Amino acid sequence: xxxxxxxxxxxxxxxxxxxxxxxxxDVIAGRANWSTGYFQAELYKQLLExxxxxxxxxxxxxxxxxxxxxxxxxxxxxxxPNSWYPGHLAWLAGELPDGSLVGxxxxxxxEEMIAGGLQGFLITKSFADEYGVYTLDELNSNAEALxxxxxxxxxxxxxxxxxxxxxxxxxCDNIITNQIAFSGWDNIQQTIAGYDAMFAQAVDxxxxxxxxxxxxxxxxxxxxQLRPGDNVYWAGVGAILDDSNPAxxxxxxxxxxxxxxxxxxxxxxxxxxxxxxxxxxxxxxxGWIAADILITANNEFLAANPAAAALxxxxxxSVIDVSLxxxxxxxxxDPTDLATQWLADNRGLADEWIAAALAAA
Length: 361
Hints:
α1 crosses α12 and α10 runs antiparallel to α13 (347-360). The chain has helices spanning 38-50, 65-73, 89-92, 125-131, 136-141, 143-150, 172-183, 195-208, 299-304, 306-314, 319-330, 335-345, 347-360, and strands spanning 26-27, 31-32, 54-55, 62-63, 79-85, 106-124, 161-164, 188-191, 213-218, 232-234, 291-298. β7 (161-164), α7 (172-183) and β8 form a beta-alpha-beta unit. It folds into two domains: 26-116 and 292-360, D-Maltodextrin-Binding Protein, domain 2, CATH 3.40.190; 119-290, 3-Layer(aba) Sandwich (D-Maltodextrin-Binding Protein, domain 2), CATH 3.40.190. The strands form four sheets. Strands 5, 6, 9, 10 and 11 form a five-stranded antiparallel β-sheet that branches. The protein has 361 residues and is an alpha/beta fold. It starts with 25 loop residues before the first strand and ends with a helix.
């Protein structure tokens, strides 16, 4: 009898890759209309894409806070990684056409950069030293310094010190208006215009020893051009703004800079903030609470996408890393490339965030 040939073994079927939680889901990303937030927006986009989401280019939806929070509340944008709290809390109190509040439809998520946003006023160093004006209160009350300042400021000859503030609807413009009223700075007013144009003027003035005061913040590349202790100082603020809303700004009760009582002061020495020398604790009376830079997102999006929500909860960024990215961006680097490189350099940390997101799916 002929021997039966052995049956060929069946090859095992290849296991299908498990679906990623974001597959088939479109995400509408946005970013702020200030360039120092571009890097974070691109970083979150790429992280969401690793979870399978199809994420729009944040550059296609660049909004200020006045429009950004409404867009999220109405479902026209899913998330915005450039919130500055507590200042932006005022936008959550906005009313929508149906009578509900913006805050009913959005949530603050995670700890992107807690106390990451240092902000304040910078004053030309040589001018401050010449006239002994190291606070805005001293500038307001020193007639000789005011006259010198007014001679070359944005509106020369009006008898007022015109300082470089913020663009309209950035929130910091409203806070500065309240600060001026609260402190009784009758001889100081804010110039509201495009930030980069104002900042360029401020840099030229500081480098030439011309009097100027400008609002700025970190993380940013701005602080590499106006350098405290070199061509500028941090200007002190005598009274820290409370919730009284003296200039009757919309949502102005949220402009309180005191926080838990320590707000408005920063650990900056007298070499960069001469007003610190007058405080027993050595802190600079910078006048602003350090802002929490956080993600805000649409509630329905978060509920429908637990993996994305968990990712937002997990991500924590270093102020130093974001500052370095801002500097490179200021030198011409693309935020997309910077985010890609950061993820490559910090793969282990990014993998932890992705794992947390996958576990929540």
